[in-house]
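User: Okay, second chain of the day. Same drill as before: sequence in, structure tokens out.
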Amino acid sequence: MIPQVPQIMCMVASAIPVPPMAMSFATFIMPKLFKDEEREPGKIAFLISFIGS
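Assistant: Same drill. Structure tokens below.
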């Protein structure tokens, strides 16, 4: 680890929630493009994007 460079961890921490947030927004904005079994994980991905993991 490089404790002198906290910007690296800042970039990583801000990039982690992006994919689940994008998935959740896609399922909310265009639900007709997804099957029912694909929309349910979109709701959960919304919560996961706030947790950041």
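The two ends are 20 Å apart (CA to CA).

User: Thanks, on to the next one.
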